[in-house]
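Q: Got a minute? One more chain.
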Amino acid sequence: MIFITMKHTTETKIKISNRLKELVRLNPSKFITNKKPSKIVNCFECDNEMFLRPSDKNKFCSPKCRLKAIEGGFLKGKSGGYRNGSGRSKSGWYKGIFCNSSYELAWVIFSLENKTNFVRNTEWFNYTNSNNKLSRYYPDYKLLDTDEYIEIKGYKEKEFLNKVNYFPKKLIVLDEEKIKPILDFVKEKYGKDFISLYDGNPHKIKTNSCLICGNPAKKQYCSRICSGYGVKKFNLAVSISR
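A: Always. Here it is, folded:
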């Protein structure tokens, strides 16, 4: 069977289009679509109106607004009050506690070993952001014995000062300088690659020593070359034993 594909000329396409438009104009009731009305919601960050399909769940009108909201702590309130894996930092679980960065991991290790009574914070506090709008702030951890809150900041974004100024309770901010003694303690005890202590080693840090050259390795060998030497060495030992 042979199929012949026919292509319309530009003139023919225009005629077809005009004919369809005329049919719609003369018989509008026959061409009414069952389109659901758009829902109107406001952007979570800038409060501008958005016209969405009923099934859409967008909270922001643009990627820029979403990024600003994340910097202000938007995702921090999800799933127990932390930003699970957001940002560029090395995050993971340590003994049932989620840490959003290596700084947080160091603080958690230090606090557990010193028997500090704390929990991951899930409570939010209102503050007025730079756009003069109400936002939410979630500190990182809460000290149960003193009702103090811990915020671990490798860097301080522009909104952080607003969060601190409106915070109603005592907040202990551990910046890069203040966290350094804790980092030094953890590195001295567990090594500079202490993020391998995350449950399941999610960042695939090499924690073993190569059986051939002694370099860090994920398993028995650090490379295919050393693996080849290891196999030859094993086969030689087997042949001698025989």
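A: Residues 224-241 form the longest helix (18 residues).
Q: Perfect, thanks.
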